[in-house]
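Deliverable D5.2: sample structural annotation.
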Amino acid sequence: MINQFRSRQFLVFLLTGGTAALVNFGSRILYSTRFSFSTSIVIAYITGMITAFVLAKLFVFKQSQQTLRRSIIFFILVNIIAVAQTWLISIALAYYLLPKLGIIFFVREIAHAVGVIVPAFTSYIGHKKFSFK
């Protein structure tokens, strides 16, 4: 299981996912000017998810034999789990853990960055086994 995280495919997944994460993170800051932090996390995740799908399809899972429709359905299902992880981790860190640790600067940014990074591993496995099988 660990060996699949040492592959070229996983490295490209991290690069394309990193790009999508930057889109997610940056758009959350923009969305926060109009929406609550919580709502902005979800909307930004959708923005990043669209970016991630396109990049994964073009650069990571090029040999996928699934139909586009099936890939999109499974991509959404895998990302529903990932957005729940992102949201729970971001909220828990921003409103509970980081304040208890005395961190007062860039709390939401730190919380959201950690929340975006954590699902990278579970998403890779989900996309490899289901979305782009």
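Annotation notes: The two ends are 17 Å apart (CA to CA). Residues 8-131 form one domain.
The annotation will be released with the project's public dataset once the embargo ends.
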